[in-house]
Amino acid sequence: MSDLILIEMRGAVALLTFNRPSKLNALSYALIDRLMAVLDRIEDDANVRAVVLTGAGDRAFSAGADIAEFSESVRFGPDIAVKDFVRRGQAMTARMESFPKPIIAAVNGIAFGGGCEITEAVHLAIASERASFAKPEIAIGITPTFGGTQRLPRLAGRKRALECLLTGESFSPQRAVELGLVNRVVPHGQLLDAAFGLADRIARHSHLAVARVITAATRGLNVSIAEGLAIESEQFARMAATQDTRKALDAWLAPRASR
After folding, report:
1. What integer best gives the mean pLDDT of the chain?
2. What is the pTM of this model?
3. Cα–Cα dist 45/207, whole Å
């Protein structure tokens, strides 16, 4: 079980690796459960300031859900399939989306189905030039189930998202940038360096401020602008009372006061 997610610390950044390369890092129930447990542990670890997420092997970030496994749940009927499969996957992507420390996907290969939905849910994503993306669920007669019908339209716009969702066709990392699914594409050999570089640029800031920004942006997406501004004000008020804010302001003001 513990080998399903490899964990490596690089300074203040945790590298998590999906570790089912022979199955293209398919998201089995056990892998999802293990990932959730690891995120629980990382959230409570003050030494971890950011997370980089990637896939083992040369071929895949994650090819999506383990079809052989979830098809067995489907055989037991919709109620079992929703409980075992849909709720588990949606809880995983929701956890990533609202995680208080930045999660950066380093998409090293295939990101199909659930792998694409993870890329949609995490805060930031960098793709290798070898990466490829797809929403292929329609080809096996189902809808996306880990949030893909909701997050991709929010990222890409309804018509561009529906083209991906209704055709099931794969698309390039450059197209993923255009759709707002990833931040940028880099040469394959530079992928992890680019992801860690981005993580380090974030980790140098107050971890409390980072968490407040993530919360405001994530919660604000699905409400009116007025409600979103109220969330923003609430998160500011939470920060304004902290020593992190006082120290950062003092550090900024000090050299200017001596001029």
Report:
1. 95
2. 0.94
3. 12
Say what the pLDDT of residue 134 is.
Answer: 98
β-strand partners of 6: 17
Residue 27 DSSP symbol: B
16 phi, psi to nearest 5 deg: -110, 130
> For the chain, how far is it from start to end, CA to CA, in angstroms?
59
What is the rounded CA–CA span in Å between residue 97 and residue 95?
6
Cβ neighbours, 10 Å, residue 103: 24
Q: Alpha helices of the chain — where are they, by DSSP H?
A: 29-43, 67-75, 78-81, 87-98, 114-121, 148-156, 158-167, 173-178, 191-203, 207-220, 225-240, 243-257
Residues taking part in catalysis? 117, 137
How far is 109 from 42, CA to CA, in rounded Å?
25
Q: Which residue type sits at 161?
A: A
Domains and CATH numbers, the chain: 2-203 (3.90.226.10), 207-257 (1.10.12)
